[in-house]
Specification:
The structure is a homodimer.
Chain A lengths: L10 H12 L4 E3 L6 E3 L8 E8 L16 E7 L5 H11 L5 E6 L2 H14 L3 E6 L19 H14 L4 H13 L1 E7 L19 E4 L10 E4 L3 H16 L6 E8 L5 H17 L3 E8 L9 E8 L4 H6 L2 E2 L4 E2 L2
Parallel strand pairs in A: 3-4, 3-5, 5-6, 10-11
Antiparallel strand pairs in A: 1-2, 2-4, 7-8, 7-12, 8-9, 10-12, 13-14
Helix pairs in contact in A: 2-3, 4-5, 6-7
């Protein structure tokens, strides 16, 4: 295993310390490492809290700040945070308007966040994301997995919370955005979990895993390495079919790297994916390319498409100021 | 070779097309793929142009925009752009106040940019960056290599050009910033050049290359893999010794990934490097962590330190709006 670490058991805390120090104008790290919260709270708004296993950086801590999350709870690598982390985060950022937990659909996360929601009581609500069209159930999930589309949900809800939307409205909007969003990924290599020390799965020199999960879970099938255009065509077709997207719609296209794939290739995949979407009559009017929802050091990427409408587009465009996403301010 | 590509000979153009389409609010791609320029020119300012071989994305095209570059000329992977690319870029963005070429110190780049400067004549000037302390000469360079510190120079000069500094003043400032900046890198794996199809160098499972160049050039020595703290200590010591930095100074710390290393590890290296700088009495008052000057898919990172002063700091803080770097607007 080749990684920049000191000890496996101190990796997360050291990385969080570095993150918090680097972005000390934006965020504060809880002294017990339970959560990262905004440095400047905005009283009166609903607090948005997300979290999950680490190893997907910049998700979620990189999205804490104006126009997105109020706090993020980092678990150990690929391990859910605990309910007491979520409760501590809720106590730290709830200013009276309530708390919405945004939860990727994995059994551990769903169980722990629902325990936290129960402890929070009436001032809390939860939203589960499950944008991955690849498989109907997986290693850690019943039903579809929540993957890169989660950051789209966090951005849209973040903007809506910032303008003052109430808790119930945010939950409704979140269901709508999640339903308008689909993703699918492909892996060229496995990731390596530090505590394990060897690749999560074996992949031949000429193979790729279509529909891989962000923890290296199996996808739809293992196939020979193909040209970028063919990969993009298969993923876009799977997404568009599942969305039931009609020609003429405007979409947001997110090409997300898994951590080990450089921008040179991600922009090429973006080029291929936008050409494919055009063949389906869909127009890319909003775009994002980069490593946003990663899987440690995995080489690979995912494509996410969100159907835009008059409700979603202005919220995507609204100002955001976080470590990993920033525009309009 | 596992990459998202269609054909080796179309890789660069497809990636540039994707980049330009994704960031069409910011940049325009020349129809012959010779350069990327700002979508909105600002008349009356000195035009800053950089460029070099591709494979280091987001450098340089990702830094085209308000407060940084006016144009970037991408060569093929790890290959200098040609003088006619640079001349075409100069003609496209020079609004009468002259053109400054910012050139990383590699023989091909220096030769081609000096030919371009000659063709541009009196309205042009050049600045060479050579911030890499690892070795005094290398595979493609006489003298030190220009590496991640180049983006610091581009940011500072970009802000100065934006406020209206004259060509000669920008050149003087560039020499000052380059002299205040040092970098050194370390590779955990080789990169793979698409046209070659196999790793540039072989590195054992337990080895790393200290002082590696951004094209995979040899560094100072090949050593056994070490804990992150030891790596950071060695690099910071090399940089601080070379800078002759006195205790009490404020510095900018840039921890730059080479393309295959995820943020989880880069923030940990940032944590380690800031602790090391503190031991030398240097205070990190400005920070940047991410994949900015990459080496294709290489796993590894570099550390860059710039000595701040009253001239440099406000220019670093000044607004910037590019694909890869954005703040203050």
């Amino acid at each position: 295993m080749k990684k920049f670490i000191n000890r496996v058991d101190s990796l997360l805390h050291e990385s969080l310390s570095g993150f918090a120090h680097c972005h000390r104008d934006l965020v504060v790290l809880d002294s017990d490492y339970r959560f990262v919260r905004r440095a400047r709270a905005k009283p009166g708004k609903v607090a948005l809290i997300s979290g999950g296993g680490s190893g997907h950086e910049p998700l979620h801590a990189g999205f804490v700040g104006h126009g997105m999350l109020d706090a993020a709870c980092p678990g150990q690598v690929f391990t859910s945070p605990t309910p007491d982390q979520m409760l501590a985060a809720a106590d730290a950022v709830d200013s009276g308007a309530g708390v919405l937990f945004i939860v990727k659909n994995y059994e551990g996360d769903v169980m722990n966040f629902s325990m936290a929601a129960e402890m929070v009581g009436e001032r809390g609500a939860s939203l589960i994301t499950d944008d991955d069209v690849a498989v109907q159930r997986s290693t850690f999930s019943t039903g579809r997995r929540g993957v890169a589309g989660t950051m789209v949900v966090e951005k849209i809800l973040g903007a809506a919370a910032e303008r003052g939307d109430a808790l119930a409205d945010l939950q409704t909007l979140g269901v709508h955005v999640n339903a308008a969003t689909r993703s699918m990924g492909v892996a060229l290599t496995s990731c390596t979990v530090p505590a394990v020390g060897r690749p999560t799965f074996d992949l031949g020199d000429q193979e790729m895993e279509m529909g891989v999960g962000i923890h290296g879970e199996p996808g739809r099938r293992r196939v020979p390495l193909a040209p970028a255009d063919e990969i993009a065509a298969e993923i876009v077709r799977a997404i568009v079919d599942d969305l039931g997207a009609k020609a003429g719609r405007e979409v947001l296209l997110l090409v997300n790297g898994f951590g080990g794939t450089p921008l040179l290739e991600l922009y090429l995949m973006y080029d291929a994916a936008s050409r494919e979407l055009a063949k389906h009559g869909l127009m890319v009017s909003r775009s994002l390319v980069g490593n946003y929802v990663t899987s440690l050091d995995m080489a690979g990427c995912s494509i996410t498409v969100t159907l835009l409408d008059n409700g979603i587009t202005p919220l995507w465009d609204a100002p955001v100021h976080t470590a990993a996403l920033r525009w309009g301010m």
